[in-house]
């Protein structure tokens, strides 16, 4: 309890300090293929930004209308949109769902323009998306679509109905475990141990996914606890990775060894070669939750 109070006090101090240090809150946009991808990859980091007074938007490029074994189409999309709005309430983020079919995403010009508009409208300082190496074609093409938007967000003649960004955001990738043609490189790692319950609360809002669809497609339906009071424990065991040795090394870089040794849960990001290339100082400004 005492620890929790200290953490809240620390966050309140950092909030005032950070908002003073710059004239407006940071605006972070995370872009996933499905209406639970951002939550899985960086729900904890989002919760930390929000606790520090910054603004986070999650975008799902598809409406999730294929993600169920016995439901589908418009009714499923509706159910999943409602789940995202519950996440928005629980995490304090904005959550937009683009109306493109799940399982059928292609990197078209039309969808590239949708993404350019979302990044511009949010006046994003940081954009986070999947890499384009992935088992799921929707994830892969979301990666391509965001890479294709990285330069165009500043070009006035492209999507001229929305004002272009004068400063190119920093583009980052979510962590993944794919190795070919090249493995994920954790350039930034965020300690999410203090907000792990928030992250789990976000995941828990996706009832159709974590308790129905994913256990069905993964053939582990019998592992889902019937008792909802056991759901968070289940999500923690099933959906939260322990930091691997590379991520541990990155945590040491940003937080120092003694704090890094205490960290139980982390989310990591790789810097994309497109968009603004941040210095170490820029990263500390854009990720004010990192240790000194
Ligand atoms: Zn997904």
Automatic annotation (TrEMBL):
Transmembrane segments: none annotated. InterPro entries: GlcNAc_PI_deacetylase-related, LmbE-like_dom_sf. SUPFAM superfamilies: LmbE-like. The keyword Signal applies. GO terms for molecular function: hydrolase activity, acting on carbon-nitrogen (but not peptide) bonds, in linear amides. Keywords: Signal. Residues 1-21 form the signal peptide. Coiled coil: none annotated. The keyword Signal applies. This is PIG-L family deacetylase. It comes from Aquirufa rosea.
């Amino acid at each position: 309890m005492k620890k929790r109070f200290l953490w809240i006090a620390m966050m309140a101090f950092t909030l005032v300090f950070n908002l003073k240090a710059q004239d407006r809150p940071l605006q972070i946009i995370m872009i996933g293929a499905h209406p639970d991808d951002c939550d899985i990859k960086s729900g904890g980091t989002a919760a930390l930004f929000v606790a520090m007074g910054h603004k986070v938007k999650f975008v799902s490029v598809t409406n999730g209308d294929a993600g169920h074994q016995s439901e589908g189409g418009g009714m499923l999309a509706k159910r999943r949109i409602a789940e995202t709005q519950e996440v928005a309430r629980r995490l304090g983020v904005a959550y937009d769902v683009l109306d493109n079919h799940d399982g059928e995403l292609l990197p078209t010009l039309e969808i590239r323009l949708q993404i350019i508009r979302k990044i511009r409208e949010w006046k994003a300082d940081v954009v986070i998306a999947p890499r384009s190496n992935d088992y799921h074609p929707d994830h892969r093409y979301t990666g391509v679509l965001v890479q294709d938007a990285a330069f165009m967000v500043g070009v006035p003649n492209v999507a001229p109905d929305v004002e272009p960004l004068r400063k190119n955001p920093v583009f980052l990738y979510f962590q993944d475990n794919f190795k070919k043609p090249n493995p994920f490189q954790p350039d930034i790692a965020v300690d999410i141990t203090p907000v792990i319950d928030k992250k789990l609360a976000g995941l828990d809002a996706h009832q159709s996914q974590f308790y129905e669809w994913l256990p069905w497609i993964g053939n582990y339906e019998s592992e889902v606890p019937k008792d909802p009071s056991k759901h968070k424990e289940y999500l923690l065991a099933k959906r939260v990775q322990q930091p691997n040795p590379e991520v541990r090394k990155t945590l040491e870089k940003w937080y120092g060894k003694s704090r890094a040794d205490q960290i139980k849960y982390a989310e990591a990001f790789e810097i994309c070669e497109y968009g603004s290339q941040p210095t170490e100082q820029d990263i500390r400004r854009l990720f004010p939750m990192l240790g000194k």
